[in-house]
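Sample entry (254 residues):
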Amino acid sequence: MGKKLLLISTAETFTVKGLEMKIKGIGVDVVYASPKVSEIQQKIVDTDLIILYTDDNVGELTEAIVFVKDYCAENDKKVVSIGAAIEYGQIRNLLPDEYILDFYERPLDLAKFLDNLEMYLSEEAQLARRKSILIVDDDVQYMTMIMDWLKDYYRVSVANSGMNAIRWLATNRADLILLDYEMPVVTGPKVLEMIRSEEPSASIPVMFLTGNADRASIMKVLELKPADYLLKTIDREGLHEKIDNFFKLQAAKK
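Predicted structure, serialized as tokens:
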């Protein structure tokens, strides 16, 4: 499978070592780390998934969990928690739900855990955990170009009109909408108004795409208080920098 796990617990007990052996038995590389942040920092590089194995000493994991939270936010990674329900409650006080992939209560159903682990680490599952972006633009050629730039890093959907976007949002959820400001018939501002008037789409951040770089046009865009605006002259690198930084700042606020 060629995947790597980091298993963090307060001690590498007989039970933890047995779990490591079983994980390695399905072809997954697993590395153990104590709660020391310096050790985790060394071993977490290139990790596909993090396992927090807790016991009565869960309080000793506090600094480690805070570090893991920041790592997940910056690298779009997830955590699987194994322990008692009361310990899991303490973890959730430190680690937002969006970074927790699953929870398993002890005693661990090992067969179920290993089956699910293989599923978590599959390429399809990793794709499903990516942030979802909806691009709305009547210029199909431009929209396709932007989609191609982003599709290897995000789940990307497209709509070639404002009404198609509204219909898509009725049954789907996006983490970010890139919205053309100058669309005909139903303009970008009108689409934004419709998005903000309906739940659950009202809370979805929207960045305007605009081809007008003059000050008056930009001020008009900003009056609508979008999450940001992107000039259509932006290149691939600039687009990724804008969007990647946006999601990192969002995660840091939680």
